Amino acid sequence: MSRTDDESRKANDMRVSNAQTSAAMHANMNRKSEDMAKVQAQIASGLRLERPSDDPIASARLLRIQREQASLAQYNENIDRVKGDLSIQEVHLSSSADVLSSMRDLLLWASNESNSGEDLAAIANQLSSLEQTAANCFNVKDEAGNYLFSGTKIDVPAVRFDDATGRYVMNGNSKVRKTMVGNGILIDKNVTAKAILGDNAEVLNKLHELVVSLKDAPRATATKQQLKDTLDLLEVAHGNVLEAITDLGGRQNMLELMKDSNEDVNLVHEKTKDDLKNLDMGQAVLQLRGYEVSMQASQKVYSRLANISLFELI
Questions:
Q1: Contact 63/166 with Cβ under 8 angstroms?
Q2: Measured distance CA(285)–CA(169) in Å, rounded
Q3: Residue 186: which residues within 8 A CB-CB, separation 6 or more?
Q4: CA atoms of 97 and 241, how far apart (whole Å)
Q5: What is the C-alpha to C-alpha distance for residues 39 and 35, in angstroms, rounded to an integer?
Q6: Which residues have a Cβ under 8 Å from the Cβ of 117 and sit 6 or more positions away?
Q7: Has residue 141 been placed in a domain?
Q8: Structural domain for 106, as ranges
Q9: CATH code of the domain covering residue 96
Q10: Which whole-number Å values give the CA distances from 276 to 31, 178, 284, in the listed order?
Q11: Could you tell me how far CA 196 lies from the centroid of its own chain?
């Protein structure tokens, strides 16, 4: 091969090498420009994540947190609603406890053998009024018109008086309604009249029979036994009411603790969201400055390569 051919081949190789180097430098500067533009846009918006492609892993975490927060918001809404229902039931049960206590006092008074027939008739009238009040306490409705103590049969009163038989009948059932207040956590949102008064409303029926007896035959031996039996049933019903009130209070306390816990979790989620989404301005400025220095250095190198003559390298 002649010297001229060898020099020509070297020159061609040099031109290819220079072209490749120039293309690589140009691509590198374009990448740096894009990086600078991205950081500048982040600084302008204050956000590190403007689109999922900015950080797919962080974006996925952000979506998961947002879903969890939506669930927490729904749980808290359920908690507030259930707490309201339980509070209303507690108020009415407290009223029924007062009514039952008044009945017990009257029955104890009626048991005193010094009472006259007129006294017993007056007591019977008071007991009759309290009997109706007690029944009404278990037939209250919520704001939506649903009966609170009827179990799952919320469209019918829990207890009613059957004029045909002269007895109280339980319309509702003893089933408990439940609401989701946490991840996999269900809570009972009601108590039932049937659980307190019995399957056949024994205490109300026994009381009603006693009232009739006191009016018709106030000093009969059967009436004395009725007084004892009614007092025993009344004590049981009163105990059931107090137990239900305690249970309602315990559920409300548990719900309050759950809501506090949900709010604590939500605060952690908000902090994590800020860390994932918002920009660390100081770090971003340093990063931008680093890109600028790197860009300036690349431009100098590219400028030097562009000014090198092919003949200077031969």
A1: no
A2: 78
A3: 178, 179, 180
A4: 6
A5: 6
A6: 218, 219
A7: yes
A8: 60-273
A9: 1.20.1330.10
A10: 24, 37, 14
A11: 29
Residue 15 is which amino acid? R
Look at residue 23 and tell me if it is in a domain. Answer: no
Number of structural domains found in the chain: 1
State both tokens at 29.
């500067």
Q: Find all residues with CB under 8 Å of 211, minimum gap 6, and list them.
A: 124, 127, 128, 131
pTM over 0.85: no
Rounded Cα distance, 64 and 50, in Å: 17
Domain assignment present for 182: yes
Residue with tokens 């027939």: 117
Identify whether 244 is part of a domain: yes
**Buried b / exposed e along 70-86 (16+ C-beta atoms within 10 A):** eebeebbebbeebbebb
* Polymer length in residues for the chain: 314
Residue type, 194: K
Element (H, E) at 155: none
The Cα 198–Cα 50 span in angstroms is 63
Residue 80, helix vs strand vs coil: helix
Each of the 314 residues of the chain gets a pLDDT tens digit; together they read 555 655 555 555 545 455 665 666 666 666 655 665 565 566 555 555 667 666 788 788 888 999 999 999 999 999 999 999 999 999 999 999 999 999 999 999 998 888 888 888 899 999 999 999 999 999 999 888 999 999 999 999 999 999 999 999 999 999 999 999 998 899 999 999 999 999 999 999 999 999 988 887 656 656 788 899 999 999 999 999 999 999 999 999 999 999 999 999 999 998 887 777 655 555 655 565 655 656 666 666 666 655 655 445 45
Alpha helices, DSSP H only, in the chain?
3-45, 56-110, 117-137, 193-197, 202-216, 221-277, 281-307, 310-313
Cα–Cα distance for residue pair 190/85, rounded to 1 Å: 8
